[in-house]
Amino acid sequence: QVQVMESGGGLVQAGGSLRLSCDASRIIFTINTMAWFRQAAGNGRELVAQITSKRPTYYSNSVKGRFTISRDNANRAYLQMNSLKPEDTAVYYCYAKEIDPTHGDYDHWGQGTQVTVSS
């Protein structure tokens, strides 16, 4: 069973930084996309940043220039968050897409990690 686990959330003051980590383990096929989503209280889940093999990295307008997504070769992804704002407060979820050449794609989600930015 694939596991996706986030870490690195916490409480930080506005203007501060946090680095989230995501580890996708027990992967059988290839992960071609890893992404970070977030969900603030009362809102839907939104895509924050995405990194896909052979495609440009995507950032939402609200985080562009402040957040950086990266990925290593071991199915780990990171989200460096700088100049944090109170509106960045949310539960952050890691997402990984596994490509099975025979049966299609599998979507994997982590349980989420809370990021709280105080003003």
Provide structural commentary:
The protein is mainly beta. Helix content is 0%, strand content 59%. Strands 2, 4, 5, 6, 9, 10 and 11 form a seven-stranded mixed β-sheet that branches. Strand 4 (30-39) and strand 5 (46-52) form a beta hairpin. The termini are far apart. The model has no long low-confidence stretch (mean pLDDT 96).
What are the salient characteristics of this protein?
single chain; 119 residues; mainly beta; four-stranded antiparallel β-sheet; 11 strands; 0% helix
Tell me the Rg in angstroms: 14 Å
Percentage of residues in strands: over 45%
Q: Count the strands?
A: 11
Main sheet properties: 7 strands, mixed
Output the number of helix runs. Answer: 0
Mean pLDDT: 96
Distance between the termini: 40 Å
Give the helices and strands as they follow along the chain: EEEEEEEEEEE
The chain-level structural class is mainly beta
What is the helix content? under 10%
Principal-axis shape: elongated
- Low-confidence segments: none
